[in-house]
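re: ur question from earlier - yeah i can do the single chain one, its not a big deal. heres the input i used so u can compare w yours
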Amino acid sequence: MWLLLFAVILLTGLFAALWPYNRIRTAQAEAAFPPSGSFITVEGTRLHYIRKGAGKPVVLLHGGVLRANDFERVMERAAARGYDAIAFDRPGYGCSERPPRDQAAPADQARLIHGALKQLGVEKPIIVGALLKEIPRIAHMIPQLHPELALEAIDTVRELSGAAAVKSISSETL
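and the output i got, formated as tokens:
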């Protein structure tokens, strides 16, 4: 019994000691790599996004542990071809805040991104998502939740990134 109590106290002390270290290292990383875009607050959640160019809006959604900055070259190419390229750090990734636990599902992320697009005045965007797990679901949910965002299929998105795996999404395929 005493051994178990000792182990619990030891682990509690270890976690208590590591918490400030983690906060310090996080602050150092944030100072070394500051956000390169802008912020918008939707439903109390602060979202980071990068926007380049002007013209037909193209919204880029990252997958996995990526972030908006990973689309930097694609955004430059899109802007050069007359698009308004917008890449978000999805909620809880990159520099975007994590929403409350009960609001972190793909449908919640779609709602937050849609809210950001409305605040930014973006209408009828082309939404391009990495073909990883939840991203196609999020990209499809935005127009399902908000039919006023009729999406447009576009084959030139493939040439923007140079990748053959880019999938265009249209309202006809929903």
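The helical segments are 2-32, 72-80, 106-119, 134-145, 157-161. not sure if urs matches, ping me
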